[in-house]
Specification:
Elements: H1 2-13, H2 16-66, H3 68-98
């Protein structure tokens, strides 16, 4: 009979809601840590992107200032290439709709 009473006492002493609360708190703390790290990484990435875009802008401005005619020619050729590609795509689209 003492074995049965000991088992009942152990089952009764076990605090499930307390353990669940501890687990919940641990998950909440972990989520807060992950959120903080993610925010930090995102912030650093944004700073890196800003720095690189600023460097690219400065390099482009320097290149255009040093070689204005070559820059103009490259811009015109790029525009003609993109315009031609878009026109070709539009023609293909119109031909498909006619069929």
């Amino acid at each position: 009979m003492s074995k049965i009473t000991r088992k009942k006492r152990h089952a009764h002493d076990y605090n499930l809601s307390g353990d669940i609360a501890k687990i919940r708190d641990a998950f909440a703390e972990t989520a807060k840590d992950v959120k903080g790290k993610a925010t930090e990484v995102f912030s650093q990435s944004m700073e890196d992107v800003k720095d690189k875009s600023s460097d690219l802008k400065e390099n482009m401005e320097t290149y255009v200032a040093e070689k204005p005619f070559k820059s103009l020619l490259l811009a015109m050729l790029s525009g003609a290439f993109i315009g031609g590609a878009l026109m070709r795509r539009k023609k293909r689209s119109n031909l498909r709709h006619r069929e």
